[in-house]
Design a protein that fits this description.
The complex is a heterotrimer of chains A (759), B (155) and C (250).
Chain A: H1 15-19, H2 26-29, E1 35-41, E2 47-53, H3 55-58, E3 63-67, E4 98-99, E5 105-111, H4 114-123, E6 125-130, E7 167-175, H5 178-184, E8 187-195, E9 207-212, E10 218-222, H6 227-238, E11 245-248, H7 266-275, E12 279-282, H8 285-290, E13 297-306, E14 312-324, H9 330-339, E15 351-360, H10 374-392, H11 396-403, E16 410-411, E17 417-418, H12 424-435, H13 437-440, E18 444-447, E19 450-460, E20 471-477, E21 483-487, H14 496-508, E22 515-519, H15 536-562, E23 571-574, E24 577-580, E25 586-588, H16 589-596, E26 605-610, E27 619-629, E28 635-645, H17 652-671, E29 701-706, H18 729-741, H19 752-757
Parallel strand pairs in A: 1-12, 10-11, 14-15, 21-22, 28-29
Antiparallel strand pairs in A: 1-5, 2-4, 2-6, 3-5, 7-15, 8-13, 9-10, 9-12, 13-14, 16-17, 18-19, 19-27, 20-21, 20-26, 23-24, 24-25, 27-28
Helix pairs in contact in A: 6-7, 9-10, 10-18, 14-15, 15-16, 17-18
Chain B: E1 2-7, E2 10-15, H1 22-28, E3 47-50, E4 53-56, E5 69-71, H2 77-90, H3 99-112, H4 118-124, H5 136-148
Parallel strand pairs in B: 1-5
Antiparallel strand pairs in B: 1-2, 3-4, 3-5
Helix pairs in contact in B: 2-5
Chain C: E1 3-9, H1 13-20, E2 25-27, E3 40-46, E4 55-57, E5 61-65, H2 70-75, H3 77-82, H4 86-91, H5 97-102, H6 105-111, H7 117-123, E6 127-131, E7 135-138, H8 139-144, E8 152-158, E9 164-169, E10 179-184, E11 188-192, E12 199-202, H9 208-218, H10 229-248
The chains are: A alpha+beta (759), B alpha+beta (155), C alpha+beta (250).
Chain lengths: 759, 155, 250
């Protein structure tokens, strides 16, 4: 199908502003005289604050106020940006006397400047009763040390959690008799995989500005993906009505899920409520890495049953997820480890079981990171399938051809949804061709201890959360015939503002330049769950389509009066106006817009919401070629080739960049992004000096192509792209490393030392 | 203490504290393009030119800049506009937070080496981290810009 | 957060030296490492007005001012011609160009940081350090000394005819090295990022395997976040072998 505005690589609407360094982020646009907010953080993983002495700290010149647990409301809340009632337990206070990880806030300091705030922080004397801590997720469940012993721990949803067992959530689901099928298989692989609490490492750290607006309300300007959830969270945490809160986001310096959690908003908001003064909290990079919302560390036990001919008949997956000290996103991320990995093998699968436990530990709380559990699960299941292929002596692409999910199949491990649009098979064959798999799969000795080898992995994700997420859009006609698009979704650099404007342009038959976009502000935007769960293009996009369709009707209604026509069926919507089919008379959009402003009751605007009963998976195949130095263990990525089925790519350039960016994050997760904890449970990789994300010298050559299916429930056939792209690198790279060394690495990251030492 | 310097072509005299970092100084003078991304001199977001050379403004005292010429992206809008459109065409600006540092360092590269190879580009820009783009689109953009102005195809 | 009360641009080495005798005063060099500390500095002493930011080359030697940057080392043609490119190879992966335009040779050598590529590569040369009061002493001796309040003014490299090679293992390209090795036909093998300070093992002959074995057996290593003692010792052998192969053309 030929489109004019969608499926086109148009520039992002904010591109030149961003590239020319204009002031568009939180810190650039807020008043410079705001109180500087700093948080004194616990040095202990588990402790009770027995006493806090503030007197000398309060004497520091410029200090406005210092707050402790005695000052804050005592209603527990969750900071996960999720639809109400949240699956995440209400287990937090703004400041809790019981601190549960190294970095848990103990006091909020507000001062006229940073120096004063830091000087005051040094002078606060805290006496802790240090408690033994739960630092190993494997022994957390039913430990006698409880992370959340409190009686007012409250789960808004029943997710199998029990704070008296250190359990955030647990569950099991199955289809068919897994044990019976496994017993009947020729071969059963049984392995445990482990992934770490990787950090999103968005370039702009967490930050929030708060002030009292001209109506005396709390006005929050935050770097957030979730303005509406944020308002609800603040309302509960602060104990003030939602009508007294306004949350808006300016441009966001990256999110990747980190900002799907209200990590820092409550602190400056509390300061503004108490002092009436503007307050600004900017997390240092170290704070972002000590008290952010990283990926859930997961340990996955896979049992994979197959026949000697390569038929995969059963998958049994148990995931143990480490939620850290608080439960945000714990019950939901774990689900994706099974729901987005097992269905890849729907082809011949006779039975599956997916069980999980999510535990509390006294480590940094985890949150949402691109891929959201799917990344972890896919590393495990895709690695297991690669292990099976190598064990049986099959080309791993062939074994996938034999077992993969194909269009039209019902996926029992994916809520029984049907793969209504699935080009996974075409992704595989195209990737095999452009990567030249047959030539590169055999291991090649390059001399000098260097070996070249290839690996492969598939991936899927979802597109929005079915039966939950809501996307909305308002489209307005302006007096000159251009449009305004108003959104509650959050463009965090991905380009969704532009993508959604392309859809308006397509629907209204105008130029993308004729669509102005605004997002997001709880006072102005129509309700939207926010930008997460790969939902914006798919769900908000459909809302845009609907809103445009409604607006067209409105425009026709106004035009009908102007053209003295009582049957709008006779009116044609053309780029510059409405034409009466019989009389040929035309009312231009400009005339209609002005008419709408004068003696008129039909609004020249429309708002629509959309939700979905399905979450159509995008699919992807990734192939990697590495050169491995057998003497040092160094892995160089030479080439990562990916073919993605995201349905119709609304903006191919942006879809490509999403893919490339996700692949490089996945490469980092596979090779260099490591987390060690010291004996107190503090992550030692708490800076860019220690936590090594890939530079442009670490990622080799990337090649991305699209093999599109057409998803009828999505706008213009689109599914999602944002998250899936991070999933294939880790299993593909682990596979290539096995090919090069003969050793399977089931613990990420796979460092040169592990490779050389063979463990 | 008092310092005098040239900021984006204009003479600036100001009183600063001895430990004021150049990053905070230029932001206080309206150069909001200059960003802080870390505390460990690793990210390159705060890159400015000091006497034409790219430096980390997070690691340079404002006092050190006394008597020198400091240039931020605010002062190079036209030179930058020349090529950033090619980045925009790739969509490689993404969140944009790393862009000013990346653009400043690219300008420094192209002044020093007007026709770099891809490897020279990667090497020179290695200190500019980007978490969104995967870097490849930035490279394509620079390459297209160079091709358009008649550079050889550097590999 | 590091704080500084006063900033002084020394107008003479004597002034800098006098100021530097107080423990609360510090010479700031390029400041890239110092600014990550939580030092409370009374007076920051800046040597930037003293003309010490040049690399001077004569027929017999290089004289490198302490305020010359790592980037100057990287791009100095004479230095790289003399060192067979080892100088460039040693510094080019240190964080980024902007970082290397800030970080100074003096700061790097004076700091005697365990991770220092610069110290490692210089140790393989006929190199000495000029101290304001202490005079000229061999770099190897300086590298082993405790820090004091003298001022490192220049680095001197004698252009003794020799070949040089440099090898480093980095898990990520611009990260700290896990191990560094520099070798020269002057019979010097320098190993750094052990992770302790770089040290020199003299060697003779060209029996690469034996020398590599000897290095692995004698050079102490230890663990840190970037690698275990065992892995480092393994790398001592591998990188020594490669460095020597680089010297002797395989």
């Amino acid at each position: 199908m030929a489109y004019r505005s969608v499926n086109q690589s148009v520039r992002k609407k904010d591109a030149m502003q961003l590239l020319l360094g204009k002031p568009v982020y939180v810190e650039d646009i807020v008043p410079k005289d705001a109180l500087v907010v700093k948080l004194l953080r616990s040095p202990h993983a588990n402790a009770i604050v027995q006493d806090i002495k503030l007197d000398t700290a309060l004497k520091v010149a410029g200090v406005e106020a210092i707050y402790t647990w005695q000052d804050v409301p005592q209603t527990r809340f969750a900071i996960a940006g999720q639809t109400y009632p949240e699956p995440s337990p209400y287990d937090r206070l703004i400041l809790d006397r019981h601190v549960r990880f190294v970095g848990d806030p103990v006091a909020i300091i507000a001062a006229e400047n940073e120096k004063a705030a830091l000087a005051a922080m040094k002078r606060i004397k805290v006496t802790y009763e240090v408690l033994p801590a739960v630092l190993d997720p494997r022994t957390a469940m039913d430990s006698e040390i409880l992370v959340h012993p409190e009686e007012d721990w409250y789960p808004p949803c029943e997710v199998g959690g029990d704070n008296k067992r250190n359990l955030v959530a647990s569950g099991v689901e199955a289809d068919g008799d897994v044990e019976k099928i496994l017993a009947d298989c020729d071969i059963v692989l049984d392995h445990v995989y482990h992934t770490k609490a990787c950090d999103q490492a968005m370039m702009e750290t967490f930050r929030t500005y708060t002030q009292t607006d001209r109506y005396g309300r709390l006005h929050v300007i935050s770097s957030t993906q979730i303005v509406f959830h944020c308002r609800r969270i603040l309302s509960r945490a602060l104990g003030i009505p939602k009508s007294k809160i306004r949350v808006e986001k300016p441009r966001i310096g990256g999110g990747f899920g980190a900002k799907q959690t209200a990590v820092c908003e409550v602190y400056p908001a509390f300061v503004t409520i108490k002092t009436g003064k503007p307050a600004l909290l900017i997390y240092s990079r170290e704070e972002s890495k000590l008290a952010g919302s990283p990926r859930h560390e997961m340990q996955m036990h896979v049992r994979l049953g197959a026949m000697n001919d390569g038929t995969i008949r059963a998958i049994d997956l148990h995931t143990l997820s480490n939620s850290g000290a608080y439960g945000e996103h714990g019950p939901t991320t774990v689900g994706l480890s099974g729901h987005k990995s097992i269905p890849l093998y729907t082809g011949r699968l006779e039975a599956f079981r997916f069980s999980y436990d999510v535990v509390y530990t006294n480590l940094q709380p985890a949150g949402a990171y691109r891929g959201y559990g799917a990344t972890q699960g896919i590393f495990a299941v895709e690695s297991a399938v690669n292990e099976l292929s190598e064990k049986l002596g099959f080309d791993p692409t062939v074994i996938r051809d034999k077992n993969m999910v194909r269009e039209g199949m019902v996926m029992p491990a994916y809520y029984g949804e049907t793969a209504s649009a699935c080009a996974l098979d075409r992704c595989m064959s195209r990737c095999r061709r452009i990567f030249d798999w047959d030539a590169r799969y055999p291991v090649r000795d390059m001399g000098n201890g260097k070996v070249r080898a290839a690996g492969v992995a598939m991936a899927m994700q979802g597109s929005s959360i079915s039966f939950v997420d809501v996307g909305s859009a308002t489209v307005k006609l302006s007096e000159d015939g251009t449009y305004n698009l108003i959104l509650g979704a959050a463009d965090m650099g991905t380009g969704c503002d532009t993508i959604l404007a392309q859809m308006v342009a397509e629907c209204m038959d105008c130029d993308v330049d004729d669509v102005a976009v605004f997002s997001a502000d709880t006072d102005v935007s129509p309700y939207d769950s926010g930008s997460y769960a790969s939902s914006t293009t798919y769900l908000t996009g459909k809302a845009v389509e609907k809103a445009c369709s409604q607006l067209k009707k409105q425009i026709l209604t106004i035009a009908a009066e102007m053209l003295e026509c009582d049957n709008t069926g006779l009116l044609l919507f053309e780029p510059k106006g409405i034409r009466h089919m019989w009389t040929g008379r035309v009312a231009t959009l400009e005339q209609i817009a002005y008419k709408a402003q004068c003696f008129n009751t039909h609004p020249a605007e429309a708002t629509a919401s959309h939700t979905s009963e399905v979450s159509p998976p995008p699919f992807m195949v990734g192939m990697v070629e590495i050169e491995l130095d057998k003497e040092t263990g160094k892995v160089d990525i030479l080439d990562f080739t990916a073919v993605v089925d995201c349905g119709t790519p609304i903006n191919p350039a942006l879809a490509r960049i999403q893919t490339e960016g996700g692949i490089v994050q996945g490469i980092g997760m596979a090779l260099t992004e490591d987390i060690h904890y010291d004996c107190k449970g503090r992550p030692m990789e708490s800076s860019f000096m220690q936590y090594k994300i890939p530079t442009r010298l670490d990622m080799g050559k990337l090649r991305v192509e699209f093999e599109s299916s057409y998803e009828t429930s999505g706008p213009f056939g689109a599914k999602s792209i944002g998250e899936i792209v991070i999933n294939p690198p880790a299993p593909a790279i682990a596979h290539a490393i096995y090919r090069a060394t003969g050793v399977w690495h089931r613990d990420l990251p796979i460092t040169p030392e592990k490779i050389v030492m063979g463990k | 203490m008092e310092i005098k310097l040239i900021l984006n072509g204009k003479a600036v005299t100001d009183h600063i504290e001895a430990d004021t970092l150049l990053l905070d100084f230029v932001r206080a003078h309206g150069c909001y393009s200059v960003k802080r991304g870390c505390e460990t001199s690793n990210c390159g977001l705060c890159t400015v030119l000091m006497d034409g050379k790219p430096v980390l403004s997070c690691s340079t005292l404002a006092a050190r800049a006394d008597g020198h010429e400091i240039t931020t992206l605010e002062g190079l809008q036209e030179e930058a506009a020349d090529f950033v459109g090619f980045i925009a065409d790739q969509g490689a600006e993404q969140c944009g937070f790393c862009n000013p540092g990346f653009v400043m360092n690219t300008i420094a590269l192209l002044r020093e080496n007007p026709d770099p190879t891809d490897d020279e580009i990667r090497q020179f820009l290695a200190g500019n981290l980007c978490r969104c783009s995967g870097y490849e689109g930035q490279l394509r953009g620079i390459r297209n810009y160079l091709d358009q102005r008649g550079g050889r195809h550097g590999i | 957060m590091m704080t500084i009360k006063n900033y002084v641009r020394a107008q003479s080495l004597e002034e800098a030296y006098t100021l530097n005798q107080s423990r609360r005063n510090k010479i700031i060099g390029g400041m890239v490492w110092m600014k990550m500390t939580s030092l409370n500095i009374n007076t920051a002493i800046d040597l930037c007005d003293l003309g010490l930011d040049t690399i001077e080359e004569t027929d017999t030697a290089f004289s490198i001012g302490c305020m010359a940057t790592l980037r100057q080392l990287e791009t100095h043609e004479g230095l790289n011609a003399y060192t067979c490119g080892a100088m460039k190879k040693a510094v080019q992966d240190i964080v980024g160009v902007q970082f290397r335009n800030c970080a100074t040779v003096g700061g790097s050598v004076y700091g005697r940081f365990g991770f220092s590529d610069v110290l490692t590569v210089l140790l393989a040369m006929d190199c000495s350090v000029e101290l304001y009061k202490g005079g000229i002493i061999p770099l190897e001796k300086f590298a082993a000394m405790m820090k004091d309040n003298d001022i490192l003014v220049r680095i001197h490299i004698q252009k003794t005819p020799a070949r040089f090679s440099y090898e480093a293992m980095r898990a990520q390209r611009t990260d700290f090295p896990v191990l560094t090795v520099a070798a020269s036909t002057l019979g010097k093998l320098a190993v750094g990022a052990r992770p302790m300070r770089a040290m020199v093992m003299p060697f003779s002959g060209d029996d690469i395997d034996t020398i590599a074995e000897q290095a692995a057996n004698t050079i102490p290593t230890a663990k840190n976040l970037r690698g275990s003692k065992e892995y480092r010792t393994h790398l001592v052998k591998v990188l020594t072998k490669r460095a020597l192969e680089g010297l002797y053309g395989n």
